[in-house]
Amino acid sequence: MARHVWVARVLVAALCMSPAIAAAQTQAGPSGHWEGAIKVPAQDLQIELDLAKTGDKWEGTISIPAQGVKNLPLTGVAVTGETVTFAIGGVPGEPTFKGTLSKEGTGISGDFNQGAGSVPFSVARTGDAKIVRPPTSTPVTKELEGSWEGAVDINGNVLRLLLKLSNQPDGTAAGTLTSVDQGGVVIPIAAVVQTDAHLQLVVPAVVGNYEGDLKDGQLT
Q1: CATH number of the domain to which 117 belongs
Q2: Which residues pair with 179 in a beta bridge?
Q3: Model-level pTM?
Q4: Same domain, 122 and 150
């Protein structure tokens, strides 16, 4: 009888462990909040990543505290086996990450490429993913569609900008900003929101927002 009781206890213990094992296997994927650094020369550039899968699609954001970048949407997030790739869209040099998920599922390490340069990066899982999405874009009226020219004054340094806005087939607006005096860099706009004559642009690539009102053919 004692022997049977011992076997029963082992079976009960195994059954109790099953959910934990299943949870560990689930957690072993790349979904989660990750913290680490890009190993740039002479210093480590701290980064935070959030990766999550919604349906069949992966999405993610990156924060770079030293550069004031917070919750910048990633592009091209893809997971193939243990390989995880993603990029930062609209940034010169097309910065791209390609890493490998560790067998334990606790870390991702690989290469960060921008332009002709390549340096290693590594991050460790610190919790669950917390994807912060920009507001949903609305359509814009005909008065706002098209190209706009203007400038921004940053502490006396005036930079010319070209704004392009257009309505998309899905019923929302999209847009870009081109910095004329910075080599024609094209900066993606994450959200375009129009409320009556008021326009809001969310531009996480430069950690900025624009809000203005349309009056007499001008946005101010």
Answers
A1: 2.40.128.120
A2: 161, 185
A3: 0.68
A4: no
Domain that holds residue 33: 29-127
Residue type at position 46: Q
Tokens (6 digits) for 71? 């919750």
Q: Which residue has the tokens 């689930």?
A: 26
Half-sphere exposure of 38 (CA within 13 A, CB side): 22
Sequence-separated (6 or more) residues with CB below 8 Å from residue 104: 28
* Overall number of domains in the chain: 2
* Sequence-ordered list of residues with C-beta below 8 angstroms from that of 217, at least 6 positions apart, any chain: none
| 166 residue type, one letter | S
Alpha-carbon gap, residue 127 to 120, rounded angstroms? 22
Q: How far apart are CA 33 and CA 125, in angstroms?
A: 6
Q: Which DSSP string corresponds to 186-213?
A: EEE-SEEEEETTEEEEEEGGGTEEEEEE
C-alpha 49/C-alpha 56 separation (Å) is: 19
Q: Per residue in 117-154, pLDDT tens?
A: 999 999 999 999 999 888 899 999 999 999 999 998 88
For residue 143, which amino acid is it? E
Count of helix runs (H) and strand runs (E) in the chain: 1, 17
